[in-house]
UniProtKB/TrEMBL annotation:
Species classification: Bacteria, Bacillati, Armatimonadota, Armatimonadia, Capsulimonadales
Pfam families assigned to the protein according to its UniProt record, in alphabetical order: HTH_3
Protein name (record): Uncharacterized protein
SUPFAM superfamilies tied to this protein: lambda repressor-like DNA-binding domains (SSF47413)
Molecular-function GO terms, alphabetical: DNA binding
InterPro entries named among the record's database cross-references: Cro/C1-type_HTH (IPR001387), Lambda_DNA-bd_dom_sf (IPR010982)
Transmembrane segments: none
CDD domains: HTH_XRE
Amino acid sequence: MSQQETALGPEWCIEGQYTEGVLDSYDIAPKELASASGVHESTLSRFFNDRKPIKDKTLLKIGIALGRLAEQRDAKRKNQQAQSAAGR
């Protein structure tokens, strides 16, 4: 593993080590990530299955979209928790 891959951590390795398990932990569907990132779903699928190296630019698109979707998901959960707490 290169220094750049090590710095990114095992989940974000440039060689395609980002797995569906990590995606599942974020609770974001692959189709939603493909739509938000502008990366074709088949590219995501090949990447997740470790069949295709991925360019840094594409990885950046995926990372930015994943971050935004995770923020939206967290805000939605926070609002739902606040509403359920207010309803008690």
